[in-house]
Amino acid sequence: MKWVTVIIKPFKLDDVREALAEVGVQGLTVTEVKGFGRQKGHTELYRGAEYVVDFLPKLKLEIALSDEQLERAIEAIVGAARTGKVGDGKVFVSDLEQVIRIRTSETDIDAL
Fold this sequence. Notes:
Family: Belongs to the P(II) protein family.
Strand order of the largest sheet: 2-5-1-6
Low-confidence stretches: none
GO cellular component, one term: cytosol
Keywords: Nucleotide-binding, Phosphoprotein
Helix content: 10-25%
Oligomer: single chain
GO molecular function: ATP binding; enzyme regulator activity
Number of helices: 2
Distance between the termini: 9 Å
Number of domains: 1
InterPro entries: N-reg_PII (IPR002187), N-reg_PII-like_a/b (IPR011322), N-reg_PII/ATP_PRibTrfase_C (IPR015867), N-reg_PII_CS (IPR017918), N-reg_PII_urydylation_site (IPR002332)
């Protein structure tokens, strides 16, 4: 099992969600976050004064997947989230040791 953490631009959420649904991914968690990478920040003008926005709004998606779903899910995410510009985001994949569904006490793949 794998734990996939994805950072994307907020306006790409619907595209990514639809792409994941098409490859059979049934659930994900979304969190509004702020951050920067190579994109750094940008300068904005407010009431005639310039100020620097260091942290840009992003969305963090967290998805638990079986090993069999992983490659198709990553392809779907990257394809749907890509704009070709700096700041499109990142996909992080790590091992998931155990999953327990609270309602039924199912474990691991059965709990996904």
